[in-house]
Design goal:
This protein has 333 residues and is of the alpha/beta class. It has 13 helices and 11 strands.
């Protein structure tokens, strides 16, 4: 069974309500129909119901059972305006500005619905930049208790792959932090370990990636990863983590024996922490496009409630998968 099918089964066991605010995107409409057919989650769509249903009719998809909330007509608008105002008034928010934002910005409207406990999570990003999805989530929902850094990851399901957890990996950070410091890399590793454990169920084995393995190259970029490993071992001693490791040393047992003998991680890694966003973004897209992997994300970790991003190059199938993962994240909360 494919990894995402296992996640869908988990989502069905305790069905959660997920907001999809990008209702002018045909992929979102197709995904919503499929989610309802598969019974993965309850779906709320934000926008004008007539326009949404016209779009569904044009696409020949069935949105029976989907709840549509129109900011212009919902009886909860005043409640949401007050909630946004109270949450952001210290930053200069006024009731008038809150109303204006909620009427025109469906992503913020969706996040406020999650804040108000009228939904369990939100998925967006098919036609918005990551910053557009993340900004209202951080401003309104805030970070989870004890979290040092919000970061992004992809769950990668690679077909016919002998490495990782039967071809399943977590790649981080591939969508948010451009050039994390050593301490931030350590925090990303810790958050990623928890995400992998909760969403995959197996023990996270974390490789801190570099173009060097155990000092084979000398450069400040290598020093940063080595320092991140040191910090992670000091601050999160429970983690099974090692570095710096090249990708082949992290994944391939025969290479690990020669490049990193004695490492408990080398040759076994299922969580790959990239040294910067360039490496992470390039890496996941190479695996997705050339390795024909399913890539679900970028998932956000460290926010108080589940809000997840999508690549603007996503398919409707990707949206279905991220909604299923978001629903499982909501269950775990």
């Amino acid at each position: 069974m494919a990894y995402i099918d296992i996640i869908k089964d988990k989502a069905r066991m305790d069905k959660k309500t997920i907001v999809l605010p990008e209702t002018n995107d045909k992929r979102t409409l197709i995904a919503a129909s499929q989610i309802m057919q598969e019974g993965i989650a309850n779906i709320i769509m934000v926008g004008n119901e007539e326009k949404i249903m016209d779009g569904a009719g044009w696409l020949e998809v069935d949105l029976t059972g989907v709840k549509v909330v129109d900011p212009e007509t919902t009886e909860k608008l005043d409640e949401y305006v007050n909630l946004l105002y109270e949450t952001r008034k210290a930053k200069g928010m006024t009731p008038e500005k809150a109303r204006e934002i909620l009427l025109k910005d469906y992503l913020t409207f969706g996040v406020v619905m999650v804040k108000a406990n009228d939904a369990d999570g939100m998925v967006a990003g098919a036609c918005h930049a990551t910053a557009d999805t993340l900004r209202p989530a951080l401003q309104i929902l805030k970070t989870a208790p004890g979290v040092k850094l919000v970061s992004a990851f992809f769950l990668m399901d690679v077909p016919d792959c002998e490495y990782g957890d039967n071809g399943t990996f977590l790649f981080a950070d591939c969508g948010l932090n451009q050039d994390p410091t050593a301490e931030e890399l350590a925090a990303i590793a810790e958050s990623s370990a928890r995400s992998f454990k909760s969403l995959v169920g197996s023990k996270p084995i974390i490789a801190m990636l570099s173009h060097s393995t155990k000092g084979s190259a000398k450069h400040p970029l290598v020093d940063k990863v080595a320092e991140a490993v040191k910090i992670a071992h000091e601050q999160y001693p429970q983690l099974c983590l090692d570095g710096e490791l090249q990708t082949d040393a992290a994944l391939v047992p025969s290479v690990a024996k020669s490049k990193a003998p004695g490492s408990e991680v080398a040759g076994k890694a299922n969580v790959l922490v990239f040294p910067n966003l360039d490496a992470g973004n390039i890496g996941y897209k190479l695996v997705q496009r050339l390795g024909k992997a399913d890539a679900y994300g970028p998932m956000l970790q460290g926010i108080a409630k589940p809000v997840n991003d999508l690549s603007r190059g996503c398919s409707w199938q990707d949206i279905v998968g991220v909604v299923a993962l978001t629903a499982v994240q909501a269950q775990l909360q």
